[in-house]
């Protein structure tokens, strides 16, 4: 179901801004905070084969939600890599200041499982996807931005649509040629968003828990942020799909659906915050990651 | 000297995009890379009393450039705090995931030097400042953004102008009331930019060296990211203005002036990158921090 923000906001209770505002400013319409609360049915289960768990040797865990519908070829590879336990014993080997943390095999020599696509088609853009909710303003890199019904941040130039390289999104590292990324080497932006990679790298997911275990790692001074000394790497004990774990050990996650007036109200509140906050607007990369463990 | 990007670009040599582009796309004009190189005279000395050095107990150093002209009351306080050696022995006591690192006195009980303004006027917006160069597109939080002649990122809504809370900018922490920040407690965004703080917090500078020593610190799980255990804090050995150090120990920094066609050409190249990069545009927070140590 595709609705514009304005159409949705028109259906909900609104309250004018307080009288503190100068009379010459048109008062933006702010929904009541209660109207922005999710309903129980807004929380939808994320399938267990769309959750990738990275268990670090430090005992910490990073959880990635996979964009199975939006980057199917690469997510399929990632599932097979996890099933083959390919990342077990590998590492986070690159942490570049204000850029990315990257994990996989730093030697790029470890054989890949035969069942994966060695050269999957690039999935830099996503077909047949519209935002369930558009943000009010264009941003520096797109004519419109918004979020899919199932919670993925996207941008468009009116023709193509793509997943945005926001902080915490997970992309496929590759060599020069567009089809040289398999999904074995993955990265996530750890500083200012990496939007200049949009439409040139395949985005396969987002870190939904444990991002601090990647963003808080020591930066490397070596070229491209690749640790010069193997001892600096953060070891990966194992990586699994949640669906690989025994049922009683599986974590369960839910996303907040966005194609409803409650989410639209939440965005309206953020786009027109209450005083004393003055900044209006909302960048697609500042949209909250609305995911939780299933209660 | 205030010039628009278009006016500047019109004066420089341009080259059309390569013939690889589809013919129905209007080819953006890209300057030659050589036109974007700074001239020797573009590098201007930063005064020694606009450089704040934070020497951490770990032996690492963080260098902050102070926006003396744009936040004079708070920078004046910061200078006096450094002269009084107020931060010596204090710490980085707050590191909140995808938000900020903050330093000063976590108890907020340490007496402030009598010579500082205890309640300086808020400097959330900057008066009398125009961008020397405007970026082509508005962004999610402003009708126009750009950079001052001396390299500070700014945004405007057509009436007010303000410094933007980009990654690595330095802001003044405060309590609820707008005039409760003195400059003693400072923070810097360590994740996605913190633009929702724009016009509501005073920005006093930017980290120009050593940002990785703040961004790479372990995140706290405690409320607001304030370390629950004092042992988690990163100690500050001393903080000084460069001008306080003996002349032969002072580091010297330079910024790249932006009010010239070379800088405009650099921006034009980034707004219209060469293939295979597809993303066009440039966010004000992705402008390069064009600062160097004086050769």
From TrEMBL, chains A, B:
Domain PPIase cyclophilin-type residues, every copy: 60-217
Entry superkingdom: Bacteria
Residues making up the signal peptide according to the UniProt record: 1-19
GO molecular function, one term: peptidyl-prolyl cis-trans isomerase activity
Enzyme Commission no: 5.2.1.8
Enzyme class: isomerase
Pfam families in the record: Pro_isomerase
The entry's keywords: Isomerase, Rotamase, Signal
Name under which the protein is recorded: peptidylprolyl isomerase
């Amino acid at each position: 179901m595709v609705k514009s923000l304005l159409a949705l906001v028109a259906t909900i209770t609104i309250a004018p801004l307080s009288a503190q505002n100068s009379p010459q400013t048109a008062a933006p319409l702010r929904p009541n905070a209660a109207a922005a609360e999710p309903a129980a049915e807004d929380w939808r289960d994320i399938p267990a084969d769309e959750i990738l768990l990275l268990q670090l040797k430090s005992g910490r865990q990073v959880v990635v939600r996979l964009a199975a519908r939006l980057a199917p070829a690469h997510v399929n590879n990632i599932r097979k890599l996890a099933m083959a336990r390919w990342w077990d014993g590998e590492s986070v080997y690159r942490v570049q200041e204000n850029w990315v943390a990257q994990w996989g095999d730093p030697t790029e020599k470890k054989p890949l499982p035969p069942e994966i696509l060695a050269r999957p088609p690039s999935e830099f853009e996503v077909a047949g996807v519209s935002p369930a909710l558009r943000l009010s303003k264009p941003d520096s890199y797109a004519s419109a931005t918004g979020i899919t019904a199932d919670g993925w941040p996207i941008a468009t130039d009116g023709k193509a649509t793509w997943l945005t390289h926001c902080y915490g999104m997970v992309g496929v590292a590759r060599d020069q040629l567009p089809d040289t990324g398999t999904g074995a080497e993955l990265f996530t932006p750890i500083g200012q968003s990496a939007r200049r990679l949009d439409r040139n790298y395949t985005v396969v997911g987002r870190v939904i828990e444990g991002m601090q275990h990647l963003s808080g790692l020591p930066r490397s001074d070596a070229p491209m942020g690749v640790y010069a000394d193997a001892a600096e790497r953060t070891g990966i004990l194992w990586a699994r799909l949640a669906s690989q774990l025994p049922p009683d050990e599986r974590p369960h996650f839910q996303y907040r659906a966005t194609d409803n007036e409650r989410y639209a109200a939440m965005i309206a509140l953020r786009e027109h915050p209450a005083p004393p906050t003055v900044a209006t607007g909302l960048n697609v990369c500042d949209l909250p990651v609305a995911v939780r463990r299933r209660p």
